[in-house]
Each structure stands twice: as structure tokens, then as C-alpha cells.
Amino acid sequence: MIDKLSPKKYVSSKDERLIQPSEMIDATNVSISERGDGSGAILKTMGGHLIGTKNSDDVDLNATIKTVVGRVSDEQRGFVYFWVAGNSSADDAIYQYDTNLNQFRLVLKNTWLNLDKNRNVQADLINKDINRDNTLQTILYWTDNFNEPRRINVDRALNGDYDGKSSSFLDTALNVIKRPSLIEPTWQFNSNSNFEENNFYNNYVQIATQIVYKDNEVSVLSPYSKIAISASSVFGAIESAGYGQARFAQNELQIRHNVPDNHPDLKAVRLLSRSGNDGNWHVIDEFDPTTDVTRQVFGSSVKVYDSATKKYLFYNESLGRAIPSQDALRVFDNVPRLAEGISIAGSRLMFSNYEEGRGNFDISASITPIYNRTNAGSSSLTDSDDTLLSFTNGDINFVGNLETNTTAITSATQIINSGTFISFSFIWKPEFTVSKTGGGALLSFAGLAPDEYTIASLALTNIQDATKVKTFSFVTTEDKTVHELAEFIQGQLEDDQEEFYTSYTVGSTTATKVSDSSTFQTQGTVRCYWKFSEIETVFDGTAGLTFTPRIDRIELINWNAPGSSNYVTPNQESVLAFTPTAHANFVFTEENQAMGSEVSYEILNGGDLSSFKAGALHDFGVVYFDKYGRAGFVNPLGTAYAKLQPERSANEYGPVSMRFNFAANATAPSWADHYKIVYAGSSVADTFQYTVGGAYAKRKREVSSNIFDLDDSSHNIYVSLKTLDQYKDNNDVPRAYSFTKGDKLRIISRRNDQDNGLVYELDSQNNIIEFDVLGFITADGHPVQIRDHNGITSNFEDEKNPYKGSFLVLSAPRVDATLGDGANVLKYEGYDWNSITNTAYNGSVASPDLNKWNRGVLVEVITPRESVSEKIYYEIGEGRKLGASRITPSPGVYGQSITTNSGDVYYRPVNCRRPNNVGGGGAWKALGPTASDNVGGITATANLPNYNTEENPETWVAEARYIESSDINDLFPSKHWNKGRPHTVFKDAAEVRRFNGITYSEAYADDTAELTLSKFVPASANFFDLPSENGICSFIGRTGDALIAVQEDRCSRLLLNKDIIRTGDESGLVSLSTQVLGNPSFYMDNLGSKDPSSVLTYGGVTYIFDAQRHCVAALTDKGADIISERGIKSAFQESANAYTVKHSAGRRIVSGYDPEDSIYYITFVSAQSGSQGNITYGYNTKGEFWQGKYTFAPHVYATCDNKLILGQTFSTSPNNFVFVHNGTTSSNDFFGAASRAQSSFTVVSVADPSMVKAYDSVSIESDSAWSVSLESSSGQTTGALTLSEKEDAFYGAVTGDTSTNSKGHYIPVGTIAANGVDGATITMTNSLRGMHIPKNYKVSKAADANSYTDFSAAVSSVNYADKKITFDGSVAANLSAGDRVFIRSEKALNGDQIRGHYCKITCSITPTGTNQEELHVVNAKYVESRANHRIA
Questions:
Q1: In the beta sheet, which residues pair with residue 772?
Q2: How confident is the model at residue 360 (pLDDT cuts 50, 70, 90)?
Q3: Which of 692, 1089, 1196, 1227 is the most exposed place for a label (fewest CB within 10 A)?
Q4: Beta strands in 566-615 (DSSP E)
């Protein structure tokens, strides 16, 4: 009988008696061909691995070990990208593999990559026509859950855009988050006489910038500038007071964008403006800041941007496109700081298991109101005198001469106004010899060996450019003392990314080899990079601001040694052997005292009308930012009270600034790069200030002798705002008061008794004089008219009548409620009802009989702000970088105090109407009659109220008074203040790991230029939380129109921009949705994965390995299929037990897909080098069966161009890491190894399993002879059978059992006679005649009834007559009289016949040719055993 076995499937979890003829219980390095080429299902050896070749010599694959830790395929362009971690970070690299050319090349090699062999890189990519030139460019996105998520434009990288760049450059250029400008734009007004138009007269703008990166990614907005307010607008309504400005003055806004030309990856600066502080942001222009820009302005061609001065001229003449509101409101892109999963799906960049947020920080600061700020003014000065510079060991003293020779800076306490323009420039031409303070190595660099070399000093005495100019220019954003100005300039210079260097030709210089102290002479060019940010402020009559230059780094350019070249890479990073932190680190020997020349400076004093509301509490906080501009929440600093003018000391009646001072030992969050002060507003919701015309008590309607009697039923006061009515009529302005219940009126100032100044008064208890505002009325005489109107009609026209017009109705409840005698009674002398009516207080305390309300009284009416639970804070003032200050003495990490006037009001002059002191001097007349007054022919008596001249509104005068106003200008509605970007308080703020979350960017569109994958907008709720009970979501991947999310304990499918509507029968209907991610459809319970590297998505199927449940599953839109249960469940249990996840101890699990053969591979990679301890399994997806195990074990798989690409750890020859699976016909040639791998499989002959079968022979239908061996169900084994080819098949007889159980090869000889052992000969007791005792059979003796002791002596001759057997060696030591002797043959010849219920047949081959070996069928010939026990 013949059992025909056709091996096709690999199973390992079946009982051998249940194995089918097509199944293999073991299979190594074999494939089952089902390619539709007519060959059917054929077992073959594997194809070979085609070795990828280097594209060019610039690919540096040195002999150090490198590990491939990530990959991503570009099916569209036919590339695969590999992330390779070196043993040293210097070898970390990204490579591009071209599947068409079978070549790879270096994309980027830089320590910045910071890869690690034990960290998995997950990646995705897009191809986009970025430049709109019909040319695709590829951008890779990746994350390793350790570094910031990153991206790189491959085409630009291959073009060298990132070669030799520093880590700080690459942080900005290549991280997903796009850093905005951290400095707000600044501006100055100018009057351009070429244009009569002025579009700033009634328009107030804020300026911001966005940075456009070279791949058309756009940052969020920078901090906002202060509101640009033209003087022609501010002073437009007060010409009569002498403050008038020409209508077309200041019609040009000169903007400095403050983005350095060398900002990493900078393509353009986008300037934006908005009207006031609440308008939409519109684009002014977008331009390359290194190139001049010319535009049409008012019909003329104007160079609006000068790339040398960095000034942009803005005329506000056109409205550019508006940016989306979500862009305008976004303070930062909430790109995760860390993430594990990544995918580009639905045109969005998505991350899972990500980290975001920042915790709050407990910080305090002293907040001090400053009242004595200088009023607005301007001055300018310039100089270009070499004597203004002096040098001492490299120190540059600029401002000492400014102090003594000019009036620009005169004392340490002088206030430099906000908006002051400061510029210094000079030629820098130092020539000197430099060494390290304290001796030792100044420079350290590597030669070609590589060996380390050092240089102790450099003679930089031959400068190449003696006319190089260094320029500093700044605009102060806040009021500053000189010390604060020094720190402001220091911060600007420290952040200045413009690399300023001087170049030198250096002759023969001694370099010392570190390893053996040998020396050689080298020479070349040196670039010395300078920083000028060490600043001291000293005022002693001769010194002011001292700038100390320091060497930031040194580069060696084209340095050579005798007989060699390129010992130092050109334009490399700094070769300083230490980290320079101060000028004191260097020793200079000056060769040329004339280090600088042609110094010029300019200071244009600025003026700013902003102020904090006086008489109010102000709420402040601080917000910290990381170096990419991500902000934490507001950390409250508390409140500060700004005194109302009457509460202040003399000469402190001006506007209010706030000064913030942090303690020198105060700390900041470790992650914070800089900070800003934020402001939530004041306790005053609205304020109205103006002068009043007088105040009156209420009169009754009853008339006695033409007099309206005093109504003492209420103590209300009626204060005339006819002054405001006049102001509005005369100036055609909308300035008005609108009553709000709860308003308060407070007295600020009045004209003094001599009418030559102002008086600031408090009440009798030294508190603010404050009234309740009960209403706002328009009176037609009553209730304040004193005399009968009919009696004086001819003289009391409306414009002359003080009793007609607008009145505030006031009460003074604090005065009315006062009890006590004169010493304790609260009085508002000259202002309260008792005072102006000459009525005793409390019935007994005399009234001062004063009415001061006609003395030019300036009042304010405030609307108190209602408390709110959640305040919005807005940025004010400048941003300040955190860190060790170079100011001496050091003020701590927060730097010098910050002073800002960016409050909620403006302190500005207004044309105020008031009653005129017609008597002059101290002759202010009381409101009411005097005996000499005569009006309209009616003579007053001593007690008769009458109309005095000062009450006549036609006699009132105008004067400019500084007032607080929420409006910039009275001519137009303009309630705008310097409100920056918004922030909020969140008490529970913390760094959060969203382990079950997915966050995503805005969607990008192929038909638009902007690439929006870096835009992460929390306001759009750009996140989705999966059920937390399912654990970490370590992998996300797109498949079709859905996103697959793999959590530790469950997997789900989320439709993209669609959702599933559940019907009554639990079926689902797909519908369009505005949701980015639809509700998840979950796969079966308790199926997930902890290891993202094991997850593979290809062809609409996601394969996962669940180590906890020891299974492999295939996920489709139909459900989950546990494919590991198809015959090899136990194998995966063993593998799961042997391998941990997350690369513990260097282990990892990876998977790949071969589209040519439709095979899914999963590999368990051990911590050992090479392939030792590794195992791979292959699953045939068409046939839905496992086809074997494999000895190749790559670190990553990739599928591209219908090929399976392998990435492998590598070091020495072959110096390669990229291989194409089945890419060569050299069968089983894996990874270019020195020898071919063996293929093998085991089938089971189990026909009629109840029958005990005796196996006679085996044949294989194959092109080549395979090695064949057998093992029966009883443990019998054979060695390799001898096969011979017959009629296209190979046949071999089944040999005897070669196992230890075999006894058939023992032949009994007999028993040794007494004295029967003589050296090599033994004599038997029994006759030997008739026995067949072959020569060379070896001797054994019986150990017991069932076992034998074998010896090596072999039969050489037999003497049958004498019953003697002679061996080829002495047996005297082994045999003795009475032993039962056996001779034995090879087991294969005479061993027990192979028999059993089944027999395992193993075939193996090591290919040698160029083709794969094929095998169709294994035939096992057997007969029923004579001792068979089965029942027929």
C-alpha cells in the first residue's frame, strides 16, 4: 500500500493521527507556490535575498553595528525609507531605498535623530506638489515615543538642505510643531509727505506675524504688537487746546517683523493686521525677508520692504485676505510632545498614546504700580564718532559717552519710554591671540583615523574682512529703566539667530594628538562666531551700558596636515573643547587695539498713552511657554491696586504702569523656555471721565416770590453734564455717558482756588470722594431750576440756561449715614448735599457752605465689574526668556523686573469744558446769588438765589485735561487696548498621557499650497478617546476609509468622516458625518496588542499579535479572524512565552507581507546578534493556512512595488541592510550569508491510523534528491535514506531503526568458554558452524535480558573448527569467560523494521543552484504489520 502525501500546510497543534496528507507538522524555509502559472500548489525552497546596493559613496556604512528600527513605504513613488540607529548617535540615519534601481542612499545622518535600537519608530508619509510646479515631494512623519514627533522633506534633504545643520536648527525645521516668532512685531509711525492720505486717522491696528516654512507649513500667530495709534488720531479733537496734529501726520507705519533671516527653514514672513483688538486678522503681505519688496501704494510704486533695515512700510490702504478665525485664536499648535502611534488618514496627521499639557507652577512676584512715567515726547540723536568706542581686553563701552556727552541717558533711574527705537552699529575687526582661561585645550577635533587632536591657542591676527559691520536695532515694547533696558537688549542679542563671524587666515599651528602627545603642524581658515550679549549697567559719571563680546563657537575650515587633507570637516559644529559661557573663559592677547571703528547710534524716544485704570484692582498672572511656543495655563500672580490720583503723593498724578519683580532665587518649570505676563482686566468694567458744569440740589415746584423752594425730602445732587453737551456739539464727537445701575461717581481733581493749577481732594476721612449714581436725566429746568422760568424768559435761552441739559443724579449714602459730632462726621466738603445747601450735618454739625462743583471738577463714573468664575487673561508686555542672565549682578532666571503700561485705559488729553473763573485769582463765585447780582431787571436780595455769571454756559471755557478713557479717540468708537493672545486658568492642569486617545491635525488638500498637517487645533475638539478600560492605543493605521486602532485589550475600526447608524436589528448603515472619526466598531473582546511593531496593515487587512493571548489575528471590515488557531496555536504560545514585548532586552516582534506570494510573515527577534534565537512564521493568505517557519529574521519588513523588502541589523561584510525577499534565484541565500540555509519539512503517513504499518520504502516526486528520514509513532528512527532516481522520482528503501530502542541488528554468537579470552581472540563453548559472522561486525555482550554493552572491536576472522573468533583489537579488558557474546551490524542495515500507527517523514535540502528546489509528493510504501492488532 502507498500513502500519497502532498505537503501544502504547516500545522503544529494537531495530534499526528489527525494529520491530513496535505499537512506538515514541521516546515522550515519552504514556500507553497500558488502563482497561477499552472504549477498548482507546489512546495519549494525559498527564493534568495537580493542585496540592495549603495547609490553612491556618500552613504557611510562603517563597521559599527547599526539596527534598523523603523520603516515606511512610498508605493506611489516606489521608495522605502528606513530609520537606522547606530551604536553611536553619530551613526543615526534615515535611508531611502529605490525599489526600481535596488539602490539606497542617505537622506539624513545627524546626532539630532537620537534613535535607539530598543525604540521602535512608527512612520507615515505624504506626497504633495508643494511648490505647485507639478513636481511631487515626499514628506516623512515619524515618532518614537521619546523625541518630539518629527518630519522631513526627503527631496530637500537629498538636495543637501539639512546637511551640517545644528540640532537647534533641526529642532525648528524638522519637528512637526512649527515654531512661531516668539517676539512680537514692533512699529514706529512716520509722516510721509509724498502721500496726503492717512488711513490711520480713524483706524487703529495691531500687528502680528506668521512664519511660512519652506514646505508651506504656517506657524500660529506671533505675540501681538501694541495697538498702533497715530498722533493725528489721538489729538484730533483737541486742536483748541494746543495739542492738534495735522490730519495727515503719521500716515506711514514702519513695521519690524523681528523674524531673523536665518530662522530655520524660513520661506517667508507673513505680516498681518487687525482693526483694534477684536477685528479679523488680515494679511498685509507675505515676503522673503532677505529680499526687497516693491508694491503699488496709492497709485505709486513704493519699496515697502527694505531687506537691509528690515522695515516694512504699511499704509493700511488695502484689506488683504482674512485668515480663518481658528487660526487667529490659536495660541499654539497642540502637537503632542510625545506619541507612540502615528498615521495619516482622512488627509490628517494622527497620533495615539500621546503626551500633552503642562502642570501649573506655584510662583509669586511683587507687583508695584508706577505713577511717575514721563509724558509722551520724542527726541532723536545720532553720532558716528570712533571715540565713542573704547576697548579693554575686548570689552566695548558704548553708552558711557552717551551719558556724559548727550542727554539720551542721564541716570540709572531714567525711564526709557515704550516704543523707543535704539540702534547701534560699528565695524568689528578684532585681531588677537586667544587661549583658554586656566590653560588646557582650546579646540578639539578628529582626524581621518579617527584620532582626537587638540590646539591650545590660536593666533587670529590676519583678519580677512576688516570692514564687517555689526548692527543692533530694537524697539522697546514697554517702559524701561536703564537696567531693564540692558536686560531687554541682552535678551534680544542672546536670541539673535543671525550668525555674526569674523574670518582669519591662520598659518602653521601646532596640533597635539591626545592618545600619544605627538604633534603636527596644521593650518587653514578660522571662523570665529561672536555674541555681544554680556551687558553691565554702571552709572558713575563715566560709564553706562557695557557690551562685552564673547566667542560663541569656532569653526575650522579646510584645515590640512602635511601629506593629508580634510582633517576637519568644512563648516562643522563648534570645535571648542569646552562650553563657553562667558567672556571670562578666554584669554585675549590683543594684537590690534583698533578692534572697532565707525560707531553710530540712534535713540528715538517713544511715547505711549496706555495706562492701567486708576482706583481699581488689576488681576495678573504668568504664562510659561516651551521653546516651540506651546503654552501652559495661567499661573495667577494676584492683584494690584492702582491708586486714584487723590490717593497718590505729589507729582504722581500721571498714567499708571505696573512693575513685576521676581525674586532672584525664584525658579521656573524645567520645560519652560520663556514667559509672559498676562492680564485679566480691572475691577472696573467701564469708565467715563469729564469735567462738570456745576451741581444743584432738588427744588420743589411750589413757588414763593418767584423762587422754587429747596426740597429736603431727598439729599440727591444733580450734577450738570452740559459741559459734555457742549463738547459733543462743538467737536461733533460721539462721546457720551450711558447709565448702568450700580455706577459710581468719584471726584478726581478740580481747579485750585487761584485757578492756576489742579487740586486732588479726598473726603474728611482721607478716602476717595465717591457717590452713587442714581440716574442720568435730561432736565428742562425742573427739578434744579431755582427761579421761576417765566420771570426771566428773555435771558434764559436753552444754551444759556444752566438748568437745562444732561444731569447725573447722585447720592452720598456714606455721608447721609454718618453719625457723630463734628470731629467724626464724614464730609465731602464742597461736594455733598449738606455742603452745597448749607445744611447742618446730622442736624448739628455746621456745613462749610461750599459748592466747588463749578471749579472745573473732573469726575469719573465707573461701572464696577461683576465677578466671573472663569477669567480670560491676555498677554501684555514683552516676552522674557528664562535662564541665567548675563546682567551683573544676576537678577535670577526671570531677569530684571518687567515694567508695562499695557493696561485697560488710555491716559490722554481731552478738550474739557468748564465754568470760567470770571473773577480771576481766588474769586470763584458761589453757585447761587449775591446781593449785587442783577439779571433781567430783577435785583437780588441777600437771601434771594440769583443767576451769576459763572453759571452762564456761554461763558464756559475749554482746557486740555489728561483723563482716563477706554477709547483711544473721542472722534470714533475705539474701545481697544493692547490686548494680546488669550489664556485661561485651569486649576487641574497637568502633564497628561492620553494613553487611550487619538489626536489629529487639520486636513490638508492637494489643490492648495498650504500644508496643514502641523496645525493641531484644540478648539475644534481635535481628539477622540477610546474606552480606557481597553488599555493603551499603541498603533493606529489607515485601511480604506477607516482607521484601525489597536489597544492592549481590544481593537476597533473608526470610519473617517463617516459614521455608522445602528438599526433595530443591530446592523449598521454608513452615513456621512462631520465627525473626523466615527464611533468605533469593536472587534471581539480581549483581542489587542501591546507591541505596535508587530501590527501590520496591508490590502485592507490588519494583522496583530496578541502576546497576552498568544495569538495572531487578521482584522477586516467583516470582523476578526484568529489565524494562529489554524494549526499552529501551540507554536505561538511557545513564542509568546519566549519573547517579551516593547523590545525588552532588545527583543521585538515584526511583521510583513509578500504580495507576490500572498504571504504574511511574523518574526520574533531575540536580543542576540544575527539570527540566533530568532524565528519567523509565514501565513498563506490566499489558501488561509500557515506554510512554515523561517530562519531569516529581519528587524523590519516593508512592502513596496509588489515586493517584500527586509531591513536588517548590520555591521561588517556584507556592509548592507536592505534586502529584497525572493529577489534572487539563489535559493535560501538569506541576507548574503556565507552559506545557504537548509529547507526542510515533515509530513505524516497516517493512512488508516488504527493499523500498525511496516514501512518498506519512500519515494519523492521532485526535481532533486532531498535527504529523507523517518520516525515512527513508537519512536523508531532512520538516518538519511539512500535515494536513487527512477522515472522522474527518487526512491529509497526504508532502513532499520536507528534509535536506541532498536535490537534487530544484534546477532547472538554464544558463550565464552573457560579461559576463553586470549588478547584479541575468544573461544566459545558452542559450535559456530552454520553461523554467518561477517567481518567488520562489532562485538557486544549481553548486559541483562534486554540490553547490551557495545565495544569497538570488530571481527577480523573466524575459526569455525576451533570455535574461535579473532577481532581487530584486544578484548581482554571487555570480555570474560561466561559472557554471552553478540556481534552487531549498522542499525540501518539490520535494525528493527520501521513500523507504527503512523510515521513522520522528514525531507530536507540545502539548495546549491540558482533555482528553487521543488517537491510535489512524498509517497510512503507500507504493509500491514504481522502483529497488527486492529479490527478489520
A1: 744, 811
A2: very high
A3: 1227
A4: 586-590, 596-604, 610-611
